[in-house]
Write a structure and sequence with these properties.
The protein has one domain: TIM Barrel, CATH 3.20.20.140. It is built from 16 helices and 8 strands. An 8-stranded parallel β-sheet has the order 1-2-3-4-5-6-7-8. The model has no long low-confidence stretch (mean pLDDT 96). It binds zinc ion (ZN).
Length: 347
């Protein structure tokens, strides 16, 4: 990959639809949060934390996640992570993000919703004012049968109440094989009735049945991951016919062992079949990646040409849950910026 292509992937306008706020906290921010709240971290420097973040196995990943959550206590902590998230998105020219946040985890760690919601609202607003990036929230229910129904009730309630402050969709996360999507049907029905969009994680650690369940029982409009759809030709056809986009996170899939290598990852086959694919980073510092890096992989690992890469980037805007008028504006802006950058690059 030439230097000019690398510059292009950083500069080109992007939308990111699958990224977790808690999994996007950078080492420098975590150090500050730990200092504020008197939490002992396993490393005291940015480099040390970056090393500790590095994915080794799922158990370690969860441990890192929980440590990060313990460092979040006050409204200003939540404001900081939302603001810093916006800062990093702006650095990569990610103009628009739909960001997953898991309210019940924070509630169960003893932080009241008034505290984290006010912090997120301030951070989101300041990131827009200072960096011009837009953020909306996907609040996700963690799949965990023993927390039901309190978990789903709480998450739905927060998402419905918070629509004015950027809650745009209800998600479903956690261990996919712990309970099938059908168990969450009622909450997703109520979410749709309240005007929220629906994007559950499915087809990552579990196969096509989990995606079918998300479509039929939950009314999924997009699928988080969804890569395992490739195992069922009928499902691939359904996704194409109904314009259901997949939020694909290649490096996350490799780190978590969904596929052994990029060579075996179905990104390219899904795209060529006609499924709407988008590219995303999931938990970037924890998987040692960035959104820009994931875009580079489209060229270096998946062999897409420039035209296909631009289409996949535009899919990010097209598949967003924005109001149609705003969505069209962002698509037009991105298109003309792509043309300008291409002309500049070849001049
Ligand atoms: Zn995810």
């Amino acid at each position: 990959m030439g230097k000019s292509n690398q510059d292009y992937y950083l500069a080109v306008p992007k939308a990111e639809l699958h990224v977790h706020l808690e999994g996007s906290i950078q080492p420098a921010t975590l150090l500050e949060l730990a200092r504020r709240n008197g939490v002992d971290l396993p490393a005291g420097s940015e480099a040390g934390l970056a090393e500790w973040f590095k994915f080794s196995d799922f158990g370690h990943f969860i441990q890192v996640y929980m440590t990060i959550t313990r460092c979040l206590r006050a409204e200003s902590d939540y404001e900081l992570i939302a603001y810093e998230f916006g800062h990093e998105q702006a650095r990569q020219n990610i103009r628009y993000s739909e960001v997953t946040f898991t309210p019940y985890t924070h509630k169960s760690m003893g932080v009241d919703e008034e505290v984290f919601l006010a912090g997120l609202a301030r951070g989101r607003r300041r990131a827009f004012e200072d960096f011009g990036v837009e953020i909306n929230w996907v609040f996700d229910i963690v799949r965990e049968p023993r927390l039901m129904p309190a978990n789903a009730d709480f998450t739905l309630g927060v998402a419905v109440d918070y629509r004015e402050d950027g809650a745009i969709a209800l998600g479903l996360g956690g261990a996919e094989n712990s309970s099938p999507p059908e168990a969450y049907r009622d909450w997703f029905t109520r979410a749709r009735e309240a005007g929220l969009h629906v994007t559950p994680h499915a087809g990552e650690h579990d196969g096509p049945e989990s995606i079918w369940g998300s479509l039929r029982a939950l009314g999924a409009e997009r699928i988080g991951h969804g890569v395992r759809a490739i195992d069922d030709p009928e499902l691939v056809q359904y996704l194409i016919e109904h314009g259901i986009a997949l939020e694909i996170n290649p490096t996350s899939n490799i780190r978590l062992g969904v596929y052994p290598s990029y060579g075996e990852h179905p990104m390219r086959r899904l795209h060529e079949a006609g499924v709407i694919v988008t590219v995303n980073s999931d938990d970037p510092p924890l998987f040692g990646t960035t959104m820009t890096r994931e875009v580079e992989l489209l060229e270096t690992e998946f062999g897409f040409d420039r035209e296909a890469i631009d289409e996949i980037l535009l899919n990010g805007f097209r598949s967003s849950f924005l109001e149609p008028a705003r969505r069209s504006e962002l698509i037009e802006e991105a298109r003309s910026e792509m043309t300008r950058l291409r002309e500049e690059g070849s001049a």
